[in-house]
Amino acid sequence: MKFSTRTRYGIRAMIEIARHSPDNGIFQKDIAERQDISNKYLDHIIHGLKVAGLIASIRGKKSGYVLTRPADQITAYDIHNAFEPGICVIDCLNTTYQCDRREGCEAFGFWSALNQKITDYFKSVTLQDLAENKAVPEDL
């Protein structure tokens, strides 16, 4: 399984935004520079995050991007869903995928349980955890 570049860069951009005061937004050029993401590609990332309602732009003397809610109320799953429709480790877990073997598939339960564990982990990690580098479970 591989997560998209948009999801990976989206998480990195959100960490940068979370680390700045809500009164002082962060400029896109600063995010791009700090995270080594091209400004042109970051345009797409920022757009996805705005459409998902995770960030907003503020204008004026203190212009830039800010979170729309506190970092402890935004999860890695929220960020992922700004770019991808849910987590799906294999195609046959997608409800729109037609699999003739689904009914009697002995491996379906295994893949489904793995998918749920990954989804649960993404839902359990907040942006605050990521910004404070506390996203790694102690048992790993």
Plain-language structure description:
The chain has 140 residues and is mainly alpha-helical. Strand 1 and strand 2 form a beta hairpin. Strands 1-2 form a two-stranded antiparallel ribbon. The longest helix is centred in the C-terminal third of the chain and has 17 residues. The two termini are 19 Å apart. The protein has one domain: Arc Repressor Mutant, subunit A (Orthogonal Bundle). Helices cover 45% and strands 6% of the residues. The model has no long low-confidence stretch (mean pLDDT 89).
> How large is the radius of gyration?
17 Å
Helix count equals: 6
Kindly state the percentage of residues in helix: 40-55%
Q: Reading side by side through the largest sheet, how are the strands ordered?
A: 1-2
CATH topology: Arc Repressor Mutant, subunit A
Name the beta content range.
5-15%
Summed over residues and divided by their number, the pLDDT gives a mean of: 89
Secondary-structure element order, N to C: HHHEEHHH
Shape: elongated
Task: List low-confidence stretches.
Answer: none
Distance between the termini: 19 Å
Got a strand count? 2
Q: Which CATH class is shown?
A: Mainly Alpha
